[in-house]
């Protein structure tokens, strides 16, 4: 019982500090490079972000579609950040 109360307090503290990222249609974002999309010839000195991409569609909370022909699927907001011009 005591362990459950501790976990609830930790969860409440974490949730109070997390700030969800919300983008709007038309915003420009950078996309995080994953191991699947990284060019293996660049090694560890390769870029960690690529883009910019324009958000064209809001699919569900935290999920967006980007304007690019090579990226047909949706992206989670955790893998995106605002592009500063």
3D structure, described in words:
A five-stranded antiparallel sheet has the order 4-3-2-1-5, with no helix packed on it. Helices cover 19% and strands 32% of the residues. It has a single domain, classed as SH3 type barrels (Roll), CATH 2.30.30. The model has no long low-confidence stretch (mean pLDDT 87). It is α+β, with helices and mostly antiparallel strands. The chain is extended. The N and C termini lie far apart (52 Å).
**Which CATH class applies here?**
Mainly Beta
Total number of helices: 1
Supply the helix-strand structural class: alpha+beta
Oligomer: single chain
Order of helices and strands: HEEEEE
Silhouette: extended
Rg over C-alpha atoms, rounded to the nearest angstrom: 17 Å
The main sheet comes to: 5 strands, antiparallel
Instruction: Give the total of domains.
Output: 1
User: Approximately how much beta-strand content do the residues carry?
Assistant: 25-35%
The count of β-strands is 5
**Named CATH topology:** SH3 type barrels
- Going across the major beta sheet, what is the strand order? 4-3-2-1-5
What average pLDDT do the residues reach?
A: 87
Distance between the termini: 52 Å
Q: What helical percentage do the residues reach?
A: 10-25%
User: What is the level-2 CATH architecture name?
Assistant: Roll
Low-confidence stretches: none
């Amino acid at each position: 019982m005591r362990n459950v109360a501790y976990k609830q307090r930790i969860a409440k503290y974490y949730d109070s500090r997390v700030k969800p990222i919300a983008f709007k249609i038309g915003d420009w974002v950078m996309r995080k490079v994953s191991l699947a999309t990284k060019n293996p010839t660049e090694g560890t000195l390769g870029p960690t972000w690529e883009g910019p991409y324009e958000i064209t569609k809001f699919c569900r909370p935290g999920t967006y579609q980007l304007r690019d022909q090579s990226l047909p699927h949706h992206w989670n907001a955790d893998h995106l950040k605002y592009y500063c011009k």
